[in-house]
Amino acid sequence: MADNPGFNEHIGSSFAVRENVERKSQKAMKCFNFVAHLLVLLVFIVGLIGGILIGIYAYHGISSKSSCQDQPYQYTDRQASATTMPTTNIQQCPNRNPQDNTPYESSLFAPLTKKEMQTVSEILWQRNYITTIGREPRSLKESFILYIYLHPPIKEDAIKYLYDNGTNPGRYARVHIQRGAEQVPDIMEYKVGPLGSFTGITVTPLTRPGEIHFNSRPYDALEVKAINDILKTDMKALETLMRESFDGATYPEDLFIFYDNGPPGMKGTERETRFIIGFGTPEDEDVLYLLPLSGTVHCPWTNVSEWYPHSYYYLNQGPYRTVFDLVSAYNSNIIRKVRLPAGYRNTLRKTRYPKRDIFLPLREHADQPGARSYMPQGPRFSISGTKVKWMDWSFHISGGQLKGPALFDIRFKGSRIAYELAVNDISLVYGMDSSGHNSIIYMDATYGIMGGDTPTTILRDVDCPSYAAVLNTSYWNSADQKAVDMESICIFEADEQEALWRHYTASFAGGMRNRHLIVRVPVVIGNYDYTFEFHFYLDGKIYAKGKATGYILSSFWDENNPHAGRDKTRDAFGYRVSDFHTGPIHDHMFGFKVDMDVIDSNNSLEVIHWKAGDILDALKTQSTITAVPPYFIYNQTRYLEYETLQREQGFRLNYDAQKFFVVVNDNKKNRWGVKRGYHIAPLATGAQSLSEAHPAMKALSFSKYHVTVTKRKEEESFLSSIYDINRMDNPKGHLELMLNNESIINEDIVNWVTVGLLHIPTSEDVPMTTRVESGFMLKPFNFFDTTASFDMPQYFEDESNSEREPAFAECIEPKL
Questions:
Q1: Contact 535/543 with Cβ under 8 angstroms?
Q2: N or C, where is the chain less crowded by C-beta within 10 Å?
């Protein structure tokens, strides 16, 4: 076929055609490629210009005064794309519930349950201790329950039960009853129990009739409602004044009455409630924006018909005997007036609410999830009822409505470290130039630390990580005479992502990651949120601390205040923090009970004085030397002086004469013959600056001392009384009453530790104060023979050895 000329001619013609077609195709393809490249280039240029314009808008547009300024900032959801990454080969981390089903009722120390509180109320109702049950009291002339919480067992009985196979002491409730139905009303406290059944329950008085005066009682919802009713007429009379002064605001639509301007009078036998007007409603009180209109209500005893308002002030001008006297002076233009600008009220919600400003661009990468930690093989702690175990630590979690969280029977490596570590009170003393709330003094246990006006609920991923275990507690709501459950305590292991210890040399490298267990308890008390924490470390340390955040209590800024100077940015009481408000100075002093039991209850307190001076001064503390040895190159040194404290005493920290406070067991020595002990170390802390002449200093006596040691007594269970701030002229339960010079050598002793914060509010505290804190450390002090953490896996590397923490497979964070 190859010799066939026709075929060859046909083949040649076909190739010619094909070549012609291919040439045309190539020419067309070149043309197409040129057009395509041109289009790509055009798209790129348009995209580049558009990107630049968008970038310029994103950078400048939001803050510019354009017609688009009311449009919220838009951003892409990078988080969504991050969470959809392939995970086909990665399994979810193993997980288990660290909590068992052991009921709280089986523990000596667990907080009272809702059921137990109900049992107590029924017992007291049946035995005529109260006149109302299960409903809101209708009158102050009724007798009803104010508080119910655990009454801890007698320590001696508890120790015998826990360590010596003694009898179970049982669970008891402590109950406060407001006895308005009595001929002479008062407050009584009772011990009710043992709980568990209605049979065999006794009701034992803890106070005498009349011992707690009715007028020194804490505030309750019934009293507040009665005062609100009394003030309705006066609020109506002030309608024009409030509209003109406060941007058209009316009561109760736009304004509320703030009562918590404690204390209620200077004497426990009297009762006067100061009030101040503020923007907001009773359901949404706004202490950030209190206004210059105030007064006082005379409100003693139970006969509400005899109560009356008096002593009105407007812009610190007064007192006016009645509201009508104030209105007359206002209408006659004989007093200074304030006029808030029109529309001012409408700006408050935006500035008050701590919500992200949607009109501001997010910070770079803020739309991506932040760093997290979780448990790759499940929790390493366990909880039985309220008893916690972790890494040779064990303790019982407890707490009460008034005094706050507490831990009992704290052990490490089988040894008892402390019998009780507990929050007891928080004091605040304000300074401000305001007729409505000058000289405010709070003792927060009076309002209830774990269960006051606002029940606390754990905010997961805010208060605690999502993997934390959460415990419920209950508190007694006196307003409706019922127990209320709340999620209030979380427990979790934390990774500080730092070294507990480390060392690097030419021959080895070693270290241990600082992981520890945290018990965290957030609480809400009025405008402030507090968080109390107890940290347990692998080397035997315990860190206790209190943190504060929330709204500041404001004071109205009066530009023409005759007491102020020329500086309109601040005064003697604080800085201007908004258009019409200042942030008044105050403190937060946290009072803790620290009942150390170093091995057992027979302890002493050593005070080690950290000193500096001449060589002979140092050496003479231990010998009768008369000349400085020649090997000292100069005549100055640091040295210690040791003192075993003989009698009860309180100490204030003085950085010019620093001290170590060490609880020691005289009868227990370590391998080196040194008394085993624990160091109580207050960390960064403020100090009480009030003088002894201040009328509240007796009630606040716990805030005078950073460390106080007393002989332990069952009748001296707390460092303060919840009534004392309401009876400042005759306080009966404060710390200084315990200081009666008793011997504390080789005794069961208690240390009362106070640490705190001095707060000068600034503009950064509006709308929200970010976390500030203070605390103290309990640190082993010759308690062990060596560093206590060397029974744990760690990082170590030398020429012949290599060790690491236990490895784990990559896994996905488990869902609860």
A1: yes
A2: N
Q: Each residue of 403-430: pLDDT tens digit?
A: 999 999 999 999 999 999 999 999 999 9
At 50-88, the pLDDT tens digits run 544 444 444 443 333 333 333 444 444 433 333 444 545
Name the one residue in this structure whose structure tokens are 């019934």.
222
Q: Which residues contact 368 (CB under 8 A, 6 or more apart)?
A: 78, 79, 82
pLDDT tens readout for residues 484-526:
999 999 999 999 999 999 999 999 999 999 999 999 999 999 8
Residue 683 pLDDT greater than 90, yes or no? yes
CB 503 within 8 A of CB 360: no
**The whole model's pTM is what?**
0.88
Chain length of the chain: 816
pLDDT of 328 strictly over 60: yes
Other CB atoms within 10 Å distance of the CB of residue 543: 18
Q: Per-residue DSSP letters for 270-303?
A: --EEEEEEEEEETTEEEEEEEEEEEEEEE--SS-
CA–CA distances in Å: residue 790 to residues 502, 684, 793: 12, 29, 8
- Give the phi and the psi of residue 197 in degrees, each rounded to 5: -160, 170
Contact 258, 554 (CB under 8 A): no
Contact criterion met (CB below 8 Å) for 246 and 340: yes
CA quadruple 358, 363, 365, 368: dihedral positive or negative? negative
The alpha carbon dihedral of 367, 368, 371, 377 has a sign of positive
186: closest CA among 723, 761, 808? Answer: 723
